[in-house]
Amino acid sequence: MGISGVLTVLESRGLSGIGRTRFCKAAQPGIFSAMNTPSRIAQRVAAITPSATMAVDGKAKALKAAGESVIGFGAGEPDFATPDYIVQAAAAACHDPKNHRYTPAAGLPELRAAIAAKTLRDSGVQIAPEQVVVTNGGKQAVYSAFTVLLDAGDEVLLPAPYWTTYPEPIELAGGVPVILQTDESTGFRVTVEQLEAARTPKSKLLVFVSPSNPTGAVYPAEQITEIGEWALKHGIIVVTDEIYEHLVYGDAVHHSIQALVPELADQCVILNGVAKTYAMTGWRVGWLIGPADVVKATTNLQTHLTSNVCNVAQRAALAAVEGDLSAVDQMRAVFDRRRQTMHRMLNEIPGVSCISPEGAFYAYPNLTGLLGVDLGGRTASTTVELADLVLEEVKVAFVPGEAFGTPGYGRFSFALGDEDLEEGISRIAALVNGAV
Description:
Blueprint: H1 3-10, H2 17-27, H3 43-46, H4 52-65, E1 71-72, H5 84-94, H6 109-123, E2 132-135, H7 137-149, E3 155-160, H8 167-172, E4 176-181, H9 192-198, E5 203-209, H10 221-234, E6 237-241, H11 257-260, E7 268-273, E8 286-289, H12 292-305, H13 311-322, H14 326-347, E9 362-363, H15 383-394, E10 396-397, E11 399-400, E12 410-413, H16 418-432
Parallel strand pairs: 1-10, 3-4, 3-5, 5-6, 6-7
Antiparallel strand pairs: 2-8, 7-8, 9-12, 11-12
Helix pairs in contact: 1-2, 1-4, 5-13, 6-13, 7-12, 14-16
């Protein structure tokens, strides 16, 4: 399935999972020719939409491999090398026979202890090592959390824009995503009033993310406290993804919701990992922190799902979380410079407006001013069509807002080289200004 196919499906995010699959069959009938027999593919799996961010990145890389000069703003992946001290720890681990054997499913004891120490150091949240489960990347932590916590019909409050992966494991677990729309007027931050209006007797979870993917929004302490106290009052479990905790800029400060509302500890699950902070996306080490019963259930699930995470990768993660943050500081300084450049250049394009991202490494401009506009002799009526048009006309890839539950926007990663960043935005500007 190409980008258009994936993202056309995502336009129908309001449908149930099976409904989205039926929509996709109508739009892309050939894709599902092997699924005509009900026994072939389970409906819950057939209903999964492919990752739009991976689809965009894959198409951009395929065009590059074919010799095209493509600039990709799609993938959420630092362009830096993993710090050398981490790589050296992994190399040493390869030669140590103890890493050639099975280890505890919940993670190496020393890594779990180091994550507990790191969480206190960086977030002000005091936990025991026994509250940590090491997972195969942040995505498994997300999947495991929803699998362990949700029963059929449980509602999950999910502010949009949301990371494109969240709805799929929610629905696989039988949960029902309840989408709460945000926009520039609130800085893409959900309010307690919205949460309360959406709450029903079936509401079980809130997905809370700060800094945010895809918007870069960072919640201030007072708003986090208000949300945490609301969740505590109503018995709502908070699943908080803190993967971008160290990537904040300007006056923005990351605060862990459990640090601000300690009473929430028994109904809070923290997700994190080494991918973004230490440029370790391919190493696949994440973790889940939670109450004892959640950790026990997650560990039990993991014994059947994967057993232990790769020991060499765990040793590398141990070096990362035990080390200082000097390499992280250097990367953040570069991201900050790129953030400012992208923000300025996007706002200079007629029809585009973009609030300044406060965290992560994404800008999330409003692109509705480009819809219905003549761009190189073509027009786009949706940001899905706009993404395809821009890729085909000027070989620049970005992820349209439909992937994140908010049509009319686009996610642009600034985790790429300065020259490519400026060239890519300049190409879009030239297209809009009629210079292409």
